[in-house]
Amino acid sequence: MLDLDFTQRFLFDDTDVRGEWVGLERSYAEVLAKHPYPEPVAALLGELLAAAALLVGTLKFDGLLVLQARSAGAVPLLMVECSSAREVRGIARYHAEQIQPGASLSELMPEGVLTMTVDPTRGQRYQGIVGLEGATLAECLSGYFATSEQLPTRFWLNADGRRACGMLLQQLPADRRREPEAREADWQHLTTLADTLTAEELLSLDTETLLRRLYHQEQVRLFDPQPIEFRCSCSRERSANALTSLGQQDAQLLLDEQGGRITIDCQFCNQRYEFDAADVAQLFAGGGSEAPGTTRH
Predict the structure, then answer these.
(1) Which of 112, 151, 195, 218 has the smallest number of Cβ neighbours within 10 A?
(2) Which phi and psi angles does 235 have, rounded to 5°?
């Protein structure tokens, strides 16, 4: 078992297909430590974390990738963010009384919708939406790429509450193989072999062993691993900005309603930020978000 969280890119030298592998342990554990999740919900959230990490590896951008699944079922929300620096965080909302052990995606999120948002630091924001119509998150994501104008992409995802792993294969623009029939044959060959992966193999094998097991007859080039870590982007400054966006009058009303102390909790990491009357006055006087004087938080 690997003890590091990372993605690792690989290329098939004789074809126009690339791949990416991801393994998450510590970052996955930190996400799960913030909230108590039933096993099926923890597994779904782990798969979505792995998917986001894989997708960031296919994008050349600086910014944030957000995967958000919503439904009217037992799990109304799954949300994962992964930055271009490979910093991840995630959260799920669920109705505990409706969760059955071993429940499937369709049972947990009936008539669900998955939204993928690419929010670059510079440039135009992009958003795509797909129905959660597959049996698994991997099928749903693969289906999204099959029906969009994106490059053909397939996913394999598994998570068990301790480890979340995934693999992605993506067909590249024609270069080494320009004949459509040959390109399609290569794609079908490589994805068919990947379909033989078991959940146990995906969760337990390192990248090199996994690729050798699947593609020992192919010329595969493995690149250096890229580390991933859990990190929440919340901060006192961001919470202060949210308060100032309300306007001074509404912020004062909120302060009065909450007994002289506004509390803002981060849903992702449970960090709590508190603002008393002196803090609020300082914000609107242009004094910044640092606590004034000896006020404690």
Answers:
(1) 195
(2) -165, 165
- The phi and psi torsions of 276 (rounded to 5 degrees) equal -95, -175
3-state secondary structure of 294: coil
Asked whether the predicted pLDDT for residue 35 surpasses 50, the reply is yes
- Can you tell me the distance from the alpha carbon of 19 to that of 218, in angstroms, rounded to the nearest whole number? 13
What does the H/E/C string look like for 212-239? HHHHCCCCEEECCCEECEECCCCCHHHH
Mapped onto helix, strand or coil, the DSSP state of residue 35 is: coil
Backbone angles phi, psi at 269, to 5 degrees: -120, 0
**pLDDT at 275 (0 to 100):** 87
Enumerate residues 6+ apart whose C-beta is below 8 A from 227: 4, 5, 6, 86
Read off φ and ψ for residue 77, nearest 5 degrees. -150, 130
Predicted confidence at residue 287, as pLDDT, reads 62
Q: Find, among 91, 89, 78, the residue nearest to 35 by Cα.
A: 91
* CB contact at 8 A, 158 and 166: yes
Which residues, listed in sequence order, are joined to residue 261 by a DSSP beta bridge?
A: 276
Nearest residue to 15 via CA among 122, 191, 156, 175? 175
Structure tokens at 166: 């995934």
| Alpha carbon distance 251, 261 (integer Å) | 11
Residue 26's SS3 state is helix
Using a 10 angstrom Cβ sphere, with 0-12 exposed, 13-18 middle and 19 or more buried, the burial of residue 99 is: middle
Q: What is the pLDDT of residue 294?
A: 39
Structure tokens of 22?
Answer: 């991801």
User: For 73, left (φ over 0), alpha (ψ -120 to 50), or beta?
Assistant: beta
If you ran DSSP here, which 8-state letter would residue 288 be given?
-
Q: What letter represents residue 241's amino acid?
A: N
